Amino acid sequence: MEDATLDQAERWDPLRLLGEEVGRMFERLGGASWRTARPFPTMNVYEKGHRFLILAELPGVDPAAIEVSVAGDTLTIRGERRRDDRVPDDQYRRQERPFGHWERSVTLPESVLANEVSADIENGVLRIELPKAVRPRPQQIPVTARSAKNPGNASRHRALDPPQSQNASQLPRPTSPASEIEINSPAVSDEGQP
Length: 194
Known about the structure:
- The protein is an alpha+beta fold.
- It contains 2 helices and 7 strands.
- Among the domains are: about 1-35, no CATH class; about 40-85 and about 95-135, Immunoglobulin-like (Sandwich), CATH 2.60.40.
- It starts with 13 loop residues before the first helix and ends in a 38-residue tail after the last helix.
- Helices cover about 10% and strands about 25% of the residues.
């Protein structure tokens, strides 16, 4: 009965143990824990009236190495954070700051005016302002009544009128009716052989 009193966290859970072991393996290889890894760069997306504001943390990234692009409702930020060459590899005891090429895309809730997007960086924080695209407003379409008194309107809509009832002799005949087509095929016997 002692097993029944064990706390849930103390019970043997092979998947939890496997996850912990894989996390330790990644840490030994020099990477961040696979369970705690965050996307780079971290960012916040705000909606402020008629625009979106994005703040992305990019400490140590050269502004010339940052590319911002917009396609429809998707914003993409690309860049590179270079490794500090002043510190030789053999002097690192722990390295958690990622370096190298990176890319991050965010889908916005609405389309934006791509030609009016602005971006600047200050103290390692990239600020991107994206004006929202103007939504087309519904346009009222007036509906007019057709009548015999207003033939100008009626002639515009004749193509949509249902055809008048016609008898079979008045219908146009096809140029090559099916009755004139002969199909020459070999006779087939009862056994399926010609």
